Amino acid sequence: MAKMVIMIFESPYGREKAYTALRFALTALTDGHEVTVILIQDGIFIGKKDQKPADYPNLMDYLQNAISEGLKVIACGVCCNARGMNLEDFIDGITIVGMHEIVQAVTESDKTLSF
Fold it and tell me: Residue 60 has what pLDDT?
């Protein structure tokens, strides 16, 4: 099976890219692949606690389910700082990392996809 990295740049609501990325990640995970999701730029908001979207599927819940299935999730520290997000703002299972760890995850993967 493959080792995959999925980079999500888009915010969780308004467009379907983040939702599609998480569906892809969960499907790959259940098919036996090793998957790491990198939340970068506005994608960091996918992991924010206490989301209650009125007209969209709750991506926080989707992400929590994927983490419980073994999904590894890392968030860009520079992106978090720029947007006022701290570790306490995230659901459990997300790690804030620097660019060196992001580069390492990408270089160690067999496949990298961006959404």
Answer: 87
Residue 99 contacts residue 80 (beta carbons within 8 Å): no
In angstroms, rounded to a whole number, what is the distance separating the alpha carbons of residues 74 and 50?
19
Q: Are the beta carbons of 22 and 115 closer than 8 angstroms?
A: no
Radius of gyration, alpha carbons of the chain: 13
| CATH number, domain containing residue 87 | 3.40.1260.10
Number of domains making up the chain: 1
Three-state SS for 19-84 is: HHHHHHHHHHHHCCCEEEEEECHHHHHHHECCCCCCCCCCHHHHHHHHHHCCCEEEEEHHHHHHCC
Say whether pLDDT at 62 is over 90. Answer: no
* CB proximity list for 89: less than 8 A, separation 6 or greater: 48, 49
Q: How confident is the model at residue 57 (pLDDT cuts 50, 70, 90)?
A: confident
Q: Show the domain range for 19.
A: 3-114
On whether the pTM is more than 0.85, the answer is yes
